[in-house]
Design brief:
Order of helices and strands: HHHHHHH
Number of helices: 7
CATH architecture of the largest domain: Up-down Bundle
CATH topology of the largest domain: Methane Monooxygenase Hydroxylase, Chain G, domain 1
Strand content: under 5%
Largest sheet: none
Structural class: mainly alpha
Number of domains: 2
CATH class of the largest domain: Mainly Alpha
């Protein structure tokens, strides 16, 4: 009986690992497509990303502690990052935690990762002279980082919050450098 239970848990864990790896791969393809300006490719891949996310959520539902499996956490964080970036590029806003259907920690961790993508976008915008948009992204990052400080992150989320702060500093440097060049 115990062997059968453990075998089932291992089997589900392996499925979760594979699905997470596939989800992470899709999120990277979507983000890179958007950085290249290929919105069509990103839109084509987004439904597959949504299906994999739902599949992973169904896998962990009712399977004990698998919700806390590292593969699951990484997959959900990457999903939030990609879904957030898609929404930002298309609508200039970030979906809520409820809209994405993830936990608070998955949401905040994914948004911390998203700050890096927004800095990359901002650098491209600055190169092309779109400083107003860069400043809007900087304002968003300031608001987000302020929210992070309010929730008092700890553990892995603390590390991600530090990464978000570093990204905000980098974006502040981009804005500052642009203002100095205009003088």
């Amino acid at each position: 009986m115990m062997k059968r239970d453990l075998d089932k848990t291992n089997e589900v864990s392996e499925t979760l690992y594979r699905d997470s790896r596939d989800l992470v791969g899709l999120t990277k393809k979507i983000i890179f497509a958007l950085h290249r300006g290929d919105k069509g490719e990103a839109e084509r891949l987004t439904p597959d990303m949504e299906k994999l996310k739902k599949k992973m959520q169904a896998t962990v539902k009712g399977n004990g502690n698998l919700r806390y499996h590292m593969s699951y956490a990484i997959g959900m964080q990457e999903y939030v990052e990609a879904a957030g970036y898609v929404s930002f590029v298309k609508h200039k806003r970030i979906p809520t935690k409820k809209q994405l259907g993830v936990s608070s920690e998955e949401y905040l961790s994914g948004l911390c990762d998203l700050t890096g993508e927004l800095v990359r976008k901002s650098v491209d915008l600055a190169i092309n002279g779109n400083i107003r948009e860069v400043e809007e992204i900087k304002e968003f990052l300031e608001e987000f980082y302020s929210l992070l400080l309010e929730v008092n992150p700890y553990g892995d989320l603390r590390k991600k919050a530090d990464q978000a702060r570093w990204n905000l500093n980098k974006l502040e440097d981009v804005v500052y450098d642009n203002k100095i060049r205009k003088r």
